[in-house]
Each structure stands twice: as C-alpha cells, then as structure tokens.
Design a protein that fits this description.
The protein has 227 residues and is α/β, with parallel strands linked by helices. It contains six helices and seven strands, in the order H-H-H-E-E-E-E-H-E-H-H-E-E. The longest helix is centred in the N-terminal third of the chain and has 14 residues, at 19-32.
Amino acid sequence: MATKKNISLFKDRITKSSRKEMARELITAIDTGSNAVHKLLFGSTDIDEYSNHGNYKKGMHDYCSKLSGDSFTEKRLCRCMYYKNSNHGTECEACGYRDRFKVIGDYQIIDYEVPAFYYGDEIGEIDLVISDGADYYATEVKPYKNNKETLLRMIAEIMTYTDGYKEGVYKKAIAFFEKNCDDGSVTSQQREYDEKELETSELIKKADITVFRFEITGENEFRICRL
C-alpha cells in the first residue's frame, strides 16, 4: 500500500453557501483540461495510485448487525442494496433492512465499495456500480433520510473517486431517492434537482454525470430510473 500524502480535497471544501462559486470553479477546470480537473479535485498532482485494484476485499453484510437500532448510513444502504440484489443472497439475518431494497427494472447493482483510483485520507470509495448490461456506472449514493448533502458535493465525490481510471471503465453517476421511504416526504436531493441552479445543470452536462433516481414501485421495492 502506498504511503498516504497530505492532500486538499475539493469535495471537502464545499458548503451550501459556496456551491455556485465552486460549481463554476469545477466547470472552468473541465474546460481547461484533465490536468486542471485533477489538481482541483485533489489540491495536488502528487498523489499515489491505489495499489490493490482488482484484489480488494469487500466488507461482509454483517456490518449491519454492529449498528444500533434504526441507525441508517450511506455504507449500510449500499451494502444492503448490493446483497439484496446480487447472487450472494442475504448474509446478515440481524439486519432490519435486509428485505427492504429489492431493485427491479433494466438497471442492476453489480458491485459496491470499489476503491477510488487514487489513495489518500478521506478520498473515499465508489458506493455502487450500476449496470444496464452494456455500461458500468460508478455511482455516488445518498440515503433517503438524515442526509442533506448537495448535488455538487455528490458530483465532486464521484469525480474524485473515478479520476485516474481509463476512459470507458466507468461512467460517472449520482443516485438519490425520490422520497423518504418512511414518511413519503421529498428528499433534499430530489428537491434540489427539481430546482437546480444553472451552474449545477451546466456541471452535470460538462462533467458527463448520469443522474439516477430510486423510485418506489411497491412495498420495499424500487426501480432505478435515469433522469
């Protein structure tokens, strides 16, 4: 494993009050070229590649049994969605969410917690890999409750995690729920998408970001829809 280096991640500097300005900063970097994007995302060009691509070990689904009550995190959601919809079956009988996330339709969940191309503190991982059978979408996912993260932050995260991968390996994507599954309220990401600012719309296009939405189709059942 490479030695971690001090880096200044663009995604961690985003606040709600700064999102217009920072979206414009990211758009300018995209227009300038891939080197400018890389330097903006990481705050440096001196960063190590993750040395274990293709050989990483997934966390088991029993992670859920270590969480209290209805504790609901991004990591828990992604593991539950993967194991529920893969040929691995459900591996955690203690998980209260184990039957909640059946996915139907043309898109399938085929991987989760894939390491980012580069290695360093707080860089993070690709939450889910979603596929339609032809393309693979590296996807940043947000839970349907207790999360108000902005679309800009989601976009910056997936751009950070996929930067360095050869063209064609992954398409960049973000995914959010249309509604809170518990009370039917519209999620903050859906509300922001409906009312998105010009800078956000331009960034989605410039960065070639696919936007997915988890739509409720039945009890504990969802369809992944491309917006």
